[in-house]
Write a structure and sequence with these properties.
CATH class of the largest domain in chain A: Alpha Beta
Strand order of the largest sheet of chain A: 3-8-9-15-12-11-10-23-26-22-21
Oligomer: homodimer
Strand content of chain A: 25-35%
CATH architecture of the largest domain in chain A: 2-Layer Sandwich
Radius of gyration of chain A: 26 Å
CATH topology of the largest domain in chain A: BirA Bifunctional Protein, domain 2
Number of strands of chain A: 26
Number of helices of chain A: 14
Helix content of chain A: 25-40%
Largest interface: A-B, 64 and 64 residues
Shape of chain A: globular
Chain lengths: 488, 488
């Protein structure tokens, strides 16, 4: 089974698609650009959702649900937003089908044409701020801290499962505040929540910074991003948090009376992460044998496989062991299917990235031992059975830490400094990865560098030190280096 | 605040809308027929979701996600299904907008017309069975027990929040089996799961039975339903589970090799409940003062209100109490907002249906007492503070039980037997409710009774005794009574 995966060194894109396919995560559907998220892939998304939802609620947010459809006219109310989102989108024009007069199937009933077309939401700022106008009258109604879990559609020409699909699942936070400072603090707080989630749960280190003007969300005054580095040396934008200023409040006329009884426009943020995170997870940790998952997001932590064949003694023991582990919050699967060979089972759980596999044979059992294999390093060791309640949780913690450390090391090795365009191009051609380089601050230079090298500015990092230098393209003065990379 | 609700006796429909509005559950949106589910309403749906999702997983189901869009041709593959669902639906015909040549806003780009129109899913049998064709090859791949939580759209002319909206949230289970018996057992199992959920969590008694042919799901061989009785004497279909036979397998050519290596079509079920359950919950328990919620689905179980004004002593005590209650799994809110009057707070939590309110005054506190008000009966009593860790959980259990009992009593009082059409009409005109009556088994008679009386056959109950009689309309012989009611 494992042999069917294309090695990363041979074809990275195909390796990714092989893992998505063979680990049973997702597949293409009959609808161009829309994927089916299969049960195992969806269970990873459920773990991501649960963990994020708790973080959102712990920071005072509540969930709500706004309509899927947005009246076409809403999209053009915010001048920048319309350019970003009112382009490739799904447009509903009719509301009825009828039997085909020629007797074959159904056709659109021309009399059911809508007066105003509806757009399937590409993002919900407009429909939400249209509601907020009625919800916000006074400073007492603020802040409004709302999130929604939803599907959105952005018509994409080139799609890849999880990374870029026409329909995807995400969460979008939309908050309203009485002051600029409070909105800025919210946008930064959620940026921190995303970064902490990525590192703590996904074991995926991220670089935090803000986007340049040309890479900002359409309608935002500032976009904060977390950027992760994939194993092919390309960056993946993994979550963004936007300070929207008063743009949407002005577009939808959302005002409030402040505590001095004066009318003001409301300040806004929005922030989102999507099923793209599943793609990020795959590409951060997996190897040529299949998926590798950090224990905190693994749907199954431990699989117990009786060797060579399940007998009653082994199954009883496995159940005992599972009970101990489950009492520690560990998810355990016992695979006692007599129809599959042990070798097949081992390869399957390797493919699916189950962090720990316990092989249970009668001979080891007599000695009070079990064979424990960890998915991340593929090391196997015999461990005493009677302490599994302590050793397995410790091993899972160790795997989680090891994956983060490994990803950090990879990033460190693939982060460079370039002082001129030749050096910059050379790094991209040889090892790729993140490159810190000077830039003169103009959108023209940024676009030109991207055109020449395919690398874009991922962000201006928050922790960048002042370090005067010269732009790698224009030679004009620059105050600090910014972060470049080729990106998904 | 409470005074603003229209009494049920005056205008039941308006009473319902008042509660939805004033308890902050939902509101109409800018998109005709689509509602905004507000945070408090959504938190009730979240409780419903969590509880159902656990039941689904406990019975072996997993979640997945299938595309929002369905190619138009899919809808006409199953002959009955097309009549039921390929009518009033949202049709996507284009995938791009462009700036209006006249400079005003955006218009549909006519060059972006899709070759085949896409339908926003009204239900997902077709797109899912199109995937199942590739997933199912052998009896070893079966059963497939999959659920999805999703939004669906059915274009509705007359909408009411939660009860009937063009877009709604639901779950849809779609299972595949190797035998008819197994599929039938699955359809019945999920029917039982729904009934148990309704009674145990929603405190809403339901009648279980199967639908007549004319009320079946489009494409089903049998539809099992749970029917609840609302306070206006009308029935609400609250959940359905369908035995689909091999209809969708045949339409989408889904075959498997059985254990004798012979090819067969796969057997199917589907089953769903929706945000309509929130409407059912509102109408089952609420009163003229507002929402009444069963504790098991209440987002907040207990609110503690310091009286008359919060001082440090009271707030400290409230926090201590909350800690004790939270350690028992109870959700507690402390309302120490100094800007709102106590009377306003009391009315607000009554409106929102918080099951238990604890008033905490310094005078009671000195005596070691607290004032406890239960929302269901509106009784108040002084209770000793030091035993709240036992008394409040017991009170919540009592409220849950009382609400179920009250709803059962209401249903008993509003369930009648009619032996002829006059009696039948008289019952409908006076007290409404469920009516058991004889029917000759023909769709014509069923339609005629509905036309004459507006009452429809809700179901043929599973526990109906054999009791020969005569059809109330045709006088033809009937073997047992069936359940009629006017319905939502």
């Amino acid at each position: 089974m494992a042999k069917e995966i294309t090695p990363r060194s041979e074809n990275y894109s195909q390796w990714y698609l092989d893992i998505v396919n063979k680990a049973g995560l997702a597949e293409n559907s009959a609808v161009r650009g829309s994927m089916v998220i299969k049960p195992y892939g969806f269970s990873i998304w459920e773990k991501i959702q649960q963990s994020l939802d708790k973080r959102f609620k712990d920071t005072g947010h509540v969930n709500a649900y706004f309509p899927l459809f947005i009246p076409k006219s809403f999209l053009s109310k915010e001048a920048d937003h319309v350019d970003g989102f009112a382009k490739e989108c799904a447009v509903v024009t009719h509301h009825r089908l009828m039997n085909n007069p020629d007797g074959q199937g159904v056709v659109v009933d021309p009399t059911s044409k809508l007066e105003e077309e509806l757009i399937v939401r590409p993002t919900s700022e407009t429909i939400i701020w249209n509601s907020y106008r009625d919800w916000i009258k006074s400073y007492r109604d603020l802040p409004l801290l709302i999130n929604q879990w939803a599907n959105v559609v952005r018509w994409e020409m080139r799609t890849r499962p999880f990374l870029r699909t026409s329909e995807f699942l995400w969460q979008e936070g939309h908050t309203a505040h009485s002051t600029k400072e409070e909105a800025l603090a919210e946008a930064k707080l959620m940026h921190d929540v995303y970064a902490d989630f990525a590192e703590t749960e996904m074991a995926m280190p991220v670089i935090k910074g803000y986007k340049t003007e040309s890479e900002r969300f359409a309608g935002a005054l500032d976009t904060y991003t977390i950027e992760a580095l994939m194993q092919d040396g390309k960056a993946l934008q993994s979550g963004t948090s936007h300070f929207l200023g008063q743009n949407f409040a002005k577009a939808f006329d959302v005002k409030f009376l402040n505590d001095k009884n004066k009318e003001e426009f409301v300040w806004a943020t929005s922030w989102g992460v999507s099923t793209r995170l599943v793609g990020a997870l795959i590409m951060t940790h997996s190897d040529d044998e299949g998926l590798v998952l950090p224990p905190k997001l693994a749907p199954i932590h431990v699989v117990i496989v009786p060797i060579p064949k399940p007998d009653e003694n082994l199954i009883n023991k496995a159940n005992e062991m599972a009970e101990i582990l489950r009492s520690k919050g560990i998810t355990v699967k016992i695979d006692d299917d007599p129809k599959k060979r042990v070798g097949f089972k081992f390869a399957e759980y390797e493919m699916k990235g189950v962090p720990v596999r316990i092989g249970l044979g009668n001979r080891d059992l007599e000695k009070g031992m079990m064979e424990v294999a960890r998915r991340d390093t593929k090391e196997k060791q015999l461990m005493p059975l009677d302490s599994l309640g302590e050793s397995i949780p410790a091993l899972l913690d160790d795997i989680q830490e090891n994956l983060l450390q490994k990803a950090m090391d990879f990033r460190t090795e693939h982060t460079s400094i370039a002082n001129d365009l030749n050096e910059f191009q050379h790094i991209l051609d040889t090892k790729g990865g993140f490159i810190y380089a000077h830039w003169d601050g103009s959108s023209e230079t940024e676009a030109k560098i991207k055109e020449l090298t395919k690398a874009s500015i991922r962000c201006v990092t928050f922790d960048a030190k002042d370090e005067p230098g010269k732009c790698i393209l224009s030679g004009k003065p620059s105050q600090r280096r910014v972060l470049f990379a080729k990106a998904y």
